[in-house]
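Journal club prep, shared notes

We agreed each person brings one worked example of a sequence with its structure written out as tokens. Mine is t-SNARE coiled-coil homology domain-containing protein. I'm keeping it raw so we can talk through how to read the token line rather than staring at a rendered picture. Sequence first:
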Amino acid sequence: MSSDFEAYEQEFGTLTAEITNKVGRIPKLSGEEKTQLVLNVDKQLEEVRELLEQMDLEVREVPVQSRAMYSTRLKSYKQEMEKLEKDFKRSRIAYSDEVRNELLGDDGGSSETQRAHLLDNTEKLERSSRRLEAGYQIAVETEQMGQEILTNLHSDREKIQRSRDRLRETDANLGKSSRVLTGMLRRVIQNRILVFILGFILFLTIILAIYFNLRSR
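Then the structure, token by token:
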């Protein structure tokens, strides 16, 4: 799933870079060329909207432990999209003003164009700053997740070590029990052999006593 999201991210970066470049070119063009560029940017913005919808669906399928990181990244992309739309809207307004001024013979269009350029550069700086902030936040969240993973691994290692210690202790106890049982069994066997020998001696004694008693008669 993450590979699909990253592919969408790459496509998003490519599209937004193209849109930013074209939006910056709109005030510098005129006539049919400018009209075609405006229509082209409008179409690409629609593609970006569809792309963000796909990214949103992908984030919903992300495991819970990773969803926050992807949600933060998607949020930053949506904010960037909003700024692109504002820039484009501003350029279209400036474009409309220029067309109107040209039709009316107004020379004030150049000042509006310069103002649009200044606003465009300011928005680009703000957008870059937000990207850096979003990247820093992602890095912090990634570091926190890595720390949690290391903590969990350390805890699991301690549990495994304790389990091994208990197994060794159990094995030692089983060895002691085995030796005790072996000793007890040996003594039982020895006692049985002794009883058998004593019984055999007693039996011989009785036989001999009977024999000599009969012989003496």
